[in-house]
């Protein structure tokens, strides 16, 4: 079941094909589709999508009217299902879902400032904004047009939030500039002090290094729930345009994340590391301090990057991270060795 209301009641298959750059047979163009559902739960009037072989077993019993598929897979569909042929079925599914339900998570929010919000008189407020209950906005902050700030969020002094951005509930944003059309999800902390100390194990009194820089976030950045992005010590922490960060990620002080990079849940990036453009940092991966990662690198889940990756497009895995190919070879050899040493294991 969907918790959002549809914005469009139905679409013809021709409209679906035009929207998603797909192809449908001429005789089926005027058939209407009311909703998008998974293969397992689709009914008559629904469209589904198929692109992974593991879901082929569900095709025979699905009741969907139509299915978005690759050209090579259209013959796998039962006769009662109309194929909508796409080069990228998953992308087409996402586009169709956006068309039917919209893209905003906060369309239900009225554009107003709640009476309980505490806003310093020096704050610059744009037009058509929504500031909800118990929000606090500090001195000299700037909130651009069409921004939404959800309940119980704190915005620190001199923070800037760009046009169309959404800050969800229970967040804190300090020492930061956030670009346009960003989403900061519930419980996230931006601009907290970086973990910078000079240890003194003799006295036990560790000296904290002042964190005097900030956080600069580009446009169209999505930051997941309960993620922390620390401000820099003397160099800003920088998150470039179109970066997508999952829930429960730690970005330390002075880190730079290149444009269009994905960082997946429970990953950690240590201080002053530099991650290139278009990288994929898998779940629970770790990046040590001051490491540089080349553009378009893929770090497999739970990998630990402990040295520079200099070749663009590399794939690494393991602890410490090495070439994915070498890592697979190593594990195959280890498996053979164990089977020889312990044949009954």
Topology, number of strands: 38
| Rg (C-alpha, Å) | 25 Å
Secondary-structure content class: alpha/beta
Please work out how many helical segments DSSP would assign: 3
Mean pLDDT: 94
Alpha carbon gap, first and last residue: 46 Å
Which stretches are low in confidence, meaning pLDDT under 50 for 5 or more residues running? none
Oligomer kind = single chain
In helices, the fraction of residues equals 10-25%
What strand line-up does the widest sheet have? 9-12-15-18-23-26-29-32-35-37-38
* Morphology: flat
Strand-residue proportion: 25-35%
What does the main sheet amount to?
11 strands, mixed
Features:
single chain, 345 residues, alpha/beta, 11-stranded mixed beta sheet, 10-stranded parallel beta sheet, 3 helices, 38 strands
Describe the structure.
With 345 residues, the protein is of the alpha/beta class. The strands form six sheets. It has an eleven-stranded mixed beta sheet. Strands 7-10-13-16-19-24-27-30-33-36 form a ten-stranded parallel beta sheet, with no helix packed on it. Strands 8-11-14-17-22-25-28-31-34 form a nine-stranded parallel beta sheet, with no helix packed on it. The longest helix has 18 residues, at 324-341. It is flat, with a radius of gyration of 25 Å.
Would you spell out the secondary-structure blueprint of this structure?
Blueprint: E1 11-12, H1 13-20, E2 32-33, E3 35-36, E4 46-49, E5 66-69, E6 82-85, H2 89-101, E7 118-119, E8 124-125, E9 130-131, E10 136-137, E11 142-143, E12 148-149, E13 154-155, E14 160-161, E15 166-167, E16 172-173, E17 176-178, E18 183-184, E19 189-192, E20 197-198, E21 207-208, E22 215-217, E23 222-223, E24 228-230, E25 237-239, E26 244-245, E27 250-251, E28 256-257, E29 262-263, E30 268-269, E31 274-275, E32 280-281, E33 286-287, E34 292-293, E35 298-299, E36 304-305, E37 315-317, E38 322-323, H3 324-341
Parallel strand pairs: 3-4, 4-5, 5-6, 7-10, 8-11, 9-12, 10-13, 11-14, 12-15, 13-16, 14-17, 15-18, 16-19, 17-22, 18-23, 19-24, 22-25, 23-26, 24-27, 25-28, 26-29, 27-30, 28-31, 29-32, 30-33, 31-34, 32-35, 33-36, 35-37
Antiparallel strand pairs: 1-2, 20-21, 37-38
